[in-house]
Design brief:
Blueprint lengths: L3 H7 L12 H19 L15 H42 L1 E6 L11 E6 L8 H26 L6 H62 L4 E2 L11 E7 L6 E6 L3 E2 L5 E7 L13 E4 L3 E6 L13 E8 L2 E4 L4 E2 L20 E4 L9 H5 L3 E7 H4 L11 E5 L2 E5 L1 H16 L3 E7 L30 H17 L10 E4 L6 H4 L7 H20 L6 E6 L15 H15 L5 E4 L18 H4 L15 H6 L15 E6 L7 H17 L3 E6 L6 H4 L17 H7 L5 H5 L1 H6 L5 H4 L3
Parallel strand pairs: 3-6, 13-14, 13-22, 14-17, 17-18, 18-19, 19-20, 20-21, 21-22
Antiparallel strand pairs: 1-2, 4-5, 5-9, 7-8, 7-10, 10-11, 10-12, 15-16
Helix pairs in contact: 3-4, 3-5, 4-5, 9-11, 11-12, 15-17
Amino acid sequence: MTSNNTTDNHSTDIDIPVDTGNERDTADKQRAVEQAAYLRSAGNGGKKKKRRRKIDKEKVAANKRKAKARKQRLKKQLKEEKAKMKARKRRGKVLEEAVKVGESVTLNDQGIVERTITVEESYTIEENKQVKKERNRGKMLKIAGAVAAVLVLAGTGSFFGVRRYMIRQEGESAAVEAMMHTEAVNLAKYSMTQRRKDHVKENAGKDTSKALVDAAKFLIDGVHNRPPEIELTEENASDFITIESCLINTETGKVDVEMSAEGLAISDDGYYYLFEEKAYETGLRDDEYIVEEQKDIDLTFSVNLNYNSAASRLCSKFVVAVKKDGAFLPISKPKYITNPEAIAKCSLPFGNTGSKKGLLVDPEKLKTAELDDLGVRHAAYNIPLSRILGNTSNAYYPTVYYNYNGRSYAFNGQIIAEYDYIFSTLTGKGITTTAIILNDIHPGYMQLIHPKARSGGRAPYYAFNATDEEGTEYIAAIASFLANRYSGIGNGRIENWVIGNEINARSEWNYIEYMDTPSYVDEYARAFRIFYNSIVSVNGNARVYISLDQQWGKSLYSKNGYSSKEILDEFNRNIKAGGNINWGVAQHPYNYPLTSAKAWSTSGKAGSYVLNSETTPVITIKNIHVLTDYLQKEEYLTDSGQVRHVILSEMGYTSSAGQDLQAASFVYAYKVIESNQYIDSMLFSRQTDAASEVSQGLALGINTLGGGRKSIYNAFKYVDTAESAAYTDFALRVIGISSWGEVISRH
């Protein structure tokens, strides 16, 4: 706004003097001088004189009155604008005095009301008008002044006798215009300020008051509902806190560890601490915690994953601890990451072949058309680890180096090339491939063998070593390498991964010193989880399986072995305790005894060992439903409520007692498998007889050692086709039934 002095000068009446009496001659002389000066300034040089015009005094007087009236109206308008501006200020002050927020409560340490907590806030808010409206009013006043000046000039014309009047009138009009312009500018500035203040009042003020009230209520509720403080004891300390989940956040890439508790653990301070433990570690690493958070009954810790680096946490477990008596005390069970698929670079849909028919393939026949002729849709192939490791001496197949978690690993280029050919050929034929990872012993790679399995055993395969850093890192690197190489880009695709062979048969197929079942399973489960996280973090839809044989209820021929059921029960408990993952079962439902040729028979030993209950000592194809029924129990379901995947990764029937019996057993088995919705596939062992097995009375191949086709060949080829009856109904007579409905209805 302009000062009061300026406003008074603009509101004073301006009188134009009139010539009278003795002053006439002096005035005439003065006008003549002015006229001459004017003519010279106009370029006439005083040489040419214009005729003097006669002054119309009455017209001049009328113009004076009109100008005075217009000035008075402008003065009145300006005073009204000032009054409106003052009124706006007064309204702003009223708002300042009216807006206040308060909340109080009194409480003592026991939650009883005693003392007062007060929340107050005050602030100034003024109303706001649109800048455009003020600017338009200023323009109107400005135009009015300009019009007044133009009317005065038009009324007097160009008569030189009123020059002084024109000059003074122009000055007055300029002053009025300047005043109006200044007022308009100030009004615009005032309006902009008001707009900001109104925004605070209309938005921040209301939200602030509500937020403060909500905060006070939240504080009050927090005091009233404060979680109880609980003393830690030997009985409750180990699982005082439950880690609800340990997941890779797909948005941040970090690991979110979510925990809960029924109260607050009493400790040296007000914090919970998150520790990392490597898979091979069994306790906290001194005071090397990752992050701390203030205590609460529900918390989420977020930490870096550090994938594929020396500090990778992909296969680590996490523990919550408190500081008690100056030392860190774990108060939760360890949990692993359970969704490694969140970072998988390959997430191709799992292959749906439309058939469950599979075969343990003969690599010598991959170049032939036999797999195509047989209509094989699933295939299995073994990968003994010592074969693929180390440098190669063949210059045509250079060593393949793989960097993982900050280390470099060598893979035999020539052997890898063989697997590339096998898996790419199978994938090219549209076959779903299963790889069976076997831990054979080799003096150059003893770090893969469990320390308690490095002496005394004569088994072909040994327990994996996940007890130290070297073994754990090597397992993770191998798994990551294989998953990357066979993820479907160039070298074929492996979709099923079976870890080990018949784990329950300790001394025969997974050698380690004898120990109790929980300890034995824990050694396997740690290695299994490393394989799982390392594979699935690359191929998000890969499936990983535990391998079990037909010894379900008891160990019948394994020396100090375990039953499949007790291994499965403990494995399920162990995995759930460390963080549930989507493991599956690769079962081997061979006949009992193995040399029995009739899959449907319950004569002899089979009569007392193959039962239709979960207490059955043996599971064969005849009672395979016992396994799938068992896996439908709630405690065995995945976190999404699904029944776990089941594949019959190895099964077969000998032709030693006759090729028709072998063929009939296969057809019977396939009809049972086809009718069971929880079995994904069967892998018949094998494409060609193996000499070592034939010597034991187990001629399991579709083809003989010499390459001849057995009776089972056509049954295998047509069993899942529209021509099935023509090639499989012979088995009805062999089995002694009238229709396949008798078999299907039981399963």
